[in-house]
Design a protein that fits this description.
CATH class of the largest domain: Alpha Beta
Distance between the termini: 27 Å
Shape: elongated
Order of helices and strands: EEHEHEHEHEHEHEHEHEHEHEEEEEEEE
Bound molecules: pyridoxal-5'-phosphate
CATH architecture of the largest domain: Alpha-Beta Barrel
CATH topology of the largest domain: TIM Barrel
Oligomer: single chain
Number of domains: 2
Strand content: 15-25%
């Protein structure tokens, strides 16, 4: 993300991302589609096309469908234009994990509520958050509880005990790093309550999770933990983990929302806590299409792109290969010839910089062509490196993705 990125709000109430390249002054304008831009500009560096309208639609899907407070996990895509648009769409709370993220949200959405749910923080970070008015913190260890109890006034402040379970259904789960087991969670909840905090619980089922039951199992155990601790939960934060569209049909969020709504009723009965969710991936992914260019084609047919594992395509290493891929010639004509599986390399001089499963690409693909990856708004910019001088992904705002 470029720190100097500014945001301009159009008449539609959409905040456009600002092209950061000084040489392309007119690019605060909104283009009709990625194809229009590519044909007109023939960019030689990767481009992330941002469609604010799509982001608004996703935000609405969450706001209308989720039976509780919808927040956004900033780490998935900290682009100021994303924060500004989500705030404009009606999101009033954000999950932050560092002082930099606190400042970022404060700058773009002055009145927003902040939840600090990275469960390990330095004392300086905690003090910073208290000073910035953060009134909600997660906790998963006694050491962290002691730090919070010392530094964060209890009055009106929420402490959410983070639970871990071993559940299946996610691309990878976060339980190895974060979360207390049920027994420790009981103890933490008792301590938080005794210290006068608003007592809540939280969990994260793991990212790109397709199984609604993953949320329900967590909710059942949270209910159990609260009961054993003899504490009524103020809120239950069901985390992120909602899946984005990477292949086949778009995953439906509705069944997950319904399962969560049913789960809280089934397991908490009359003492129903207010629900909170904090999607990152599923909120941001669909609003961006990432475009890389074919730098060259090897004599053996391997395709060399100007973006790869160290750039915007990092997640190809950790998740299933994203299959929503289209190809345009350098003047913007769709490539149609039947696809074949190609070996695909990124631009750096590291042999690791290779998409693990290759890509199915049109038979007539040629040097200078553009490869469009749909649904690439999460964990792309945020994890992009500048290895070998690559990774300069510019953002261009479009009014739609159709071509
Ligand atoms: C990363 C994270 C999220 C968002 O996860 P997604 O899988 O992107 O939805 C939500 N909450 C916490 C505490 C996180 O660390």
């Amino acid at each position: 993300m470029n720190k100097n990125t500014t945001v301009t709000t159009s008449r539609l109430g959409f905040a456009a991302g600002n092209d950061s390249a000084a040489s392309m002054k007119s690019d605060t304008s909104v283009w009709k589609s990625p194809r229009d831009y590519l044909a007109a500009r023939q960019p030689d560096s990767p481009v992330a096309f941002f469609c604010p309208r799509t982001l608004h639609q996703t935000a609405e899907e969450f706001l209308e469908g989720f039976p509780g407070l919808v927040t956004y996990a900033v780490k998935a895509n900290p682009d100021p234009a994303v924060i500004a648009n989500l705030h404009a769409a009606g999101l009033r709370a954000f999950d932050v994990a560092s002082p930099v993220e606190i400042d970022l949200v404060r700058a773009m959405a002055t009145t927003a509520t902040l939840h600090y749910n990275n469960p390990v923080r330095s004392r300086a970070e905690i003090a910073y958050a208290v000073n910035a008015g953060v009134r909600s913190y997660s906790v998963d260890s006694f050491g962290e509880f002691d730090k919070l109890a010392e530094l964060v006034p209890a009055e009106g402040t929420e402490m959410s005990v983070r639970l871990k379970l071993t559940v299946k259904g996610a691309a990878y789960d976060f339980g190895e790093k974060f979360g207390a087991n049920a027994e420790k969670a009981v103890d933490l909840l008792k301590r938080a309550s005794a210290a006068g905090y608003l007592t809540s619980m939280t969990f994260h089922p793991g990212t790109q999770c397709f199984d609604p039951q993953a949320w329900v199992s967590y909710m059942a155990t949270c209910a159990d933990v609260a009961k054993q601790a003899g504490v009524a939960l103020h809120r239950l934060n069901v985390g992120g983990g909602f899946p984005s569209h990477r292949a086949g049909d778009a995953p439906a969020l509705e069944p997950i929302f319904k399962a969560i709504e049913g789960g809280v009723k089934a397991h908490f009965g009359k003492n129903t806590p207010m629900l909170v969710c904090e999607p990152g991936r599923a909120m941001a992914a669909e609003a961006f299409t990432l475009v890389a260019r074919v730098k060259g084609i090897g004599d053996n047919g391997a395709v060399y792109l100007n973006d790869g594992i160290y750039g915007g395509l990092t997640e190809f290493r950790d998740l299933d290969t994203l299959k929503r891929v289209n190809c345009l010639s350098s003047d913007g004509q769709p490539r149609f010839r039947k696809g074949t599986l190609r070996v695909v390399f990124g631009p750096t001089c590291d042999s690791l910089d290779k998409l693990p499963d290759g890509l199915n690409l049109p038979g007539d693909i040629a040097e200078g062509d553009y490869i469009l990856f749909s649904g690439m708004g999460a964990y792309v910019h945020a994890t992009c490196t500048r290895f070998n001088g690559y990774g300069d992904i510019r953002t261009v705002t479009v009014s739609g993705f159709a071509y």
